[in-house]
Amino acid sequence: MKITLCSIGKPHDSLLKQTIEDFTKRISNYFPVDWLIIHPPKNVGVLASDELKKVEAASLLQQLSKDDYLVLLDERGRNISSPELANLIQQRGNESTKKIIFLIGGAFGVDESIAKRANFTWSLSKLVFPHMIVRLVLAEQVYRACSIIRNEKYHHD
What we know:
- The chain is an alpha/beta fold.
- It is built from 5 helices and 5 strands, in the order βαβαβαβαβα.
- The protein starts with a strand and ends in an 8-residue tail after the last helix.
């Protein structure tokens, strides 16, 4: 199974890039992993938020296969613990899922078409965080889940 960490927005912030890349490399010890950064359209400043979400959704949907398992990160999603995230990833592996994609939406969220396409909607918190911090937390939590699956010492109950 391959894991893709996906974000709509700019490249990784230089202050967080090294740490995000470190956790991504750690994940690669368990699963093939990559980042997919979907850049916002050039005319972002003239688009209304609903139009922007539709453009971002069209770009994202081109990247998805019908068999991909899509996890949407959204503050309105379900809060889960690190062991529950590990279970979610393990179940996808047990079901022979080829790719699981964790998606951080754009600045205004995601279009309804993406929300409907998502197999699971996950909330890190009811708080709203800057996208770059969410990227770091996502990479760390996926790594933590992988270490839980392997019963390694990184996670402490």
